[in-house]
Amino acid sequence: MSKPAILTVDDDPMVSAAISRDLRNRYGDDYLVVGARSAAQALAILTKLALRNQAVALIASDQRMPGMTGVELLEQARVHAPGAKYLLLTAYADTDVAIKAINDIGLDYYLLKPWDPPEERLYPIVDDLLGDWRQANPDQSSEVRVIGHRWSDRSYDLKTFLARNHVPYRWFDIERDAEAQRLSTLAEATPADLPLVLIPEGESLRSPSTLDLAGALGLRTRAEQPLYDVCIVGGGPAGLAAAVYAASEGLSTVVVEREGPGGQAGQSAAIENYLGFPKGLTGADLTQRAVAQVSRFGAEMVLARNVVGFENRGPVHAVLFDGAGELEARALIVATGVSYRRLEAAGLDEFRGRGVYYGATASDANLCQDDDVYVVGAANSAGQAALNLARFAKRVVLVVRATTLEATMARYLVDRIASAPNIEVRCRTEVAACRGDGHLEGLVLADRASGATEEVSSSWLFIFVGASPHTEWLGDGVARDAKGFVITGQDLLVDLDRVGGPRWPLARPPFALETSVPGVFAAGDVRLDSMKRVASAVGEGAMSVYLVHRYLATI
Ligand SMILES: Cc1cc2nc3c(=O)[nH]c(=O)nc-3n(C[C@H](O)[C@H](O)[C@H](O)COP(=O)(O)OP(=O)(O)OC[C@H]3O[C@@H](n4cnc5c(N)ncnc54)[C@H](O)[C@@H]3O)c2cc1C
């Protein structure tokens, strides 16, 4: 495969030579770095590359050029290189133009000239942009292939696992793709062997568990040590932030995650309110950055392991894995978050994973191409999912029990939904029943005011109602409220009626995020009265590590 291109554009010969040289020095082995001295020359080069089917990963353009500005050039370049990343090289005086270009033309980044030293001011930015581009444009020759039935819950689970762990894969539907038939015949696969997973230069896995798949992909599924300073259960924003702070502050740290790092945030198509990312960022992008940071500081990440039990063993705490295995740590951070509550509707459970899904990953959206999709829920997550699905679906219907969306959804989402031509909001409505043969084919919707019902055809129902915490694995040892949220800090002392289970046992008061078990902390959505936002989960993850240090100083 030919190398993807990086195009630089600057009319000043010295600057043009300098940017090309700096980029070639660092990226020349993997990318073809091409320099243009005018916007017109750049467009001619882009046309040539497009006709040769050569991918363009990045265009780095000067803003002030005769004939056409950098922003104007980049706007036109979308036709030639729609997926490329755009970097504008500006003088301080052009900052406002650059900020406007973020919204107007989807500029990815602007960089003030000069960029010396490039190791500090240029390469970190370009590394990020090229990393994102690679993620969105994987080299297909190294892809995992999954062959299975479109409506199989096992296929859905494996695809979700691969997506959440950022493993590029290609999906082949056994009923629709000739290639799927060919591969399954070559592998001599029986119906019971589906989904079949083909690993490049590796074995063929027949209906594997996520643990087997993780092992075959070389993901770490076992802890290296028997005892750690701190074990973090859950690899969402709270857990990953805790891991970064704990490992960077010298604590031996392990994170245990059962599905894939990123948690709920990892499934979001656009996080727009996280500080420092004015253009917003995808959950996948945030997760990838966080995981890179976790590994850079040396925290261990154990994947595809479901924690099912917890034991206090004197000065250490043990977490027990599903199947077999355990590990021990001097302090424990519970960061297992929440997931959507079960929706009660006749026949719905039968189609779970076969048209009925709790939550939606960003990658689910293109599966619904040109179909009618129903989304249940009235909070931000439902609104975001509806907008994301509407990019591909023919029509998205948001089913809402309340009379309006305004009370529960952020204003900016309500406005965007109102102006989306293919999203319909049905208030005072609920899903009363699901029907289908092998997979979801239709829904019965009920008007909550009149009781009138209507049957609609659809193969897709995404549910975003109520949050319920993942805390069963804590058993009776850790105090929680009636819904299962973990009680921490002063709430353990002042609001005894809310406290279910054991009381705080020590003379000293609990630290702010400490649970009823000294040395066990909770951070993020799993905690009672948490804010249910990425930023607060990250903040609590970081804060819990500060409290772990204080706890460790007491034992
Ligand atoms: C679609 C969607 C869009 C969102 N958009 C935004 C947004 O734009 N802005 C914003 O601020 N917030 C947003 N949120 C909310 C935000 O994602 C959450 O508040 C945040 O992810 C909470 O982080 P957490 O680490 O506490 O928990 P989670 O993100 O829930 O992560 C918990 C992790 O623990 C793992 N886990 C659970 N139980 C176990 C176990 N027993 N063993 C091992 N691992 C376990 C789970 O697999 C999961 O990865 C969105 C949520 C969703 C669903």
UniProtKB/TrEMBL annotation:
The modification 4-aspartylphosphate is found at residue 62. The keyword Protein transport does not apply. GO terms for biological process: phosphorelay signal transduction system. Signal peptide: none annotated. Gene3D superfamilies: 3.40.50.2300, FAD/NAD(P)-binding domain. It holds the Pfam family Pyr_redox_2. GO terms for molecular function: thioredoxin-disulfide reductase (NADPH) activity. It comes from the Bacteria. Residues 5-128 form the Response regulatory domain. InterPro entries: CheY-like_superfamily, FAD/NAD-bd_sf, FAD/NAD-binding_dom, Ferredoxin-NADP_redctase_2, Sig_transdc_resp-reg_receiver. It catalyses: [thioredoxin]-dithiol + NADP(+) = [thioredoxin]-disulfide + NADPH + H(+). Keywords: Flavoprotein, Oxidoreductase, Phosphoprotein. This is FAD-dependent oxidoreductase. The lineage of its organism: Bacteria, Bacillati, Actinomycetota, Actinomycetes, Propionibacteriales.
